[in-house]
């Protein structure tokens, strides 16, 4: 059971990370009206000011850290519940 929980946690982490990236990129485009200066947009990244690149990196990194922390806590709690049954 614990292996299934770990696999589920890994899949959930990847899925929420992908979703978080999409949300941050979408919000960036909505707020600024521009494509995000993300690594997967190298032309946009090169043309953007350093301030925009840093701002996007900070927002992206912070959201990724929060998503990772929440997912790890959920997985840990689920492992504890699975181990107690």
Keywords:
85 residues, mainly alpha, 3 helices, 85% helix, 0% strand
Q: What does this molecule look like?
A:
The chain is mainly alpha-helical. It contains three helices and no strands. Helix 1 (2-32) packs antiparallel against helix 3. The chain is elongated and about 55 Å long.
Protein topology:
Layout: H1 2-32, H2 42-47, H3 50-84
Helix pairs in contact: 1-3
Overall form = elongated
By secondary-structure content and strand pairing, the structural class works out as: mainly alpha
| Termini gap | 10 Å
Percent strand: under 5%
Gyration radius over CA: 17 Å
Helical content stands at over 70%
Number of strands: 0
Q: Report low-confidence residues grouped into runs of 5 or more.
A: none
**Mean pLDDT rating:** 90
Order of helices and strands: HHH
* Number of separate helices: 3
Q: In this structure, how is the largest beta sheet organized?
A: none
In short:
The protein has 85 residues and is mainly α. It is 85% helix and 0% strand.
């Amino acid at each position: 059971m614990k292996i299934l929980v770990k696999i589920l946690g890994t899949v959930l982490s990847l899925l929420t990370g992908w979703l978080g990236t999409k949300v941050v990129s979408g919000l960036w485009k909505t707020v600024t009206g521009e494509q995000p200066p993300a690594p997967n947009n190298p032309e946009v990244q090169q043309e953007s000011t350093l301030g925009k690149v840093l701002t996007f990196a900070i927002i992206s990194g912070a959201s990724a850290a929060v998503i990772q922390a929440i997912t790890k806590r959920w997985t840990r709690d689920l492992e504890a519940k699975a181990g107690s049954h």
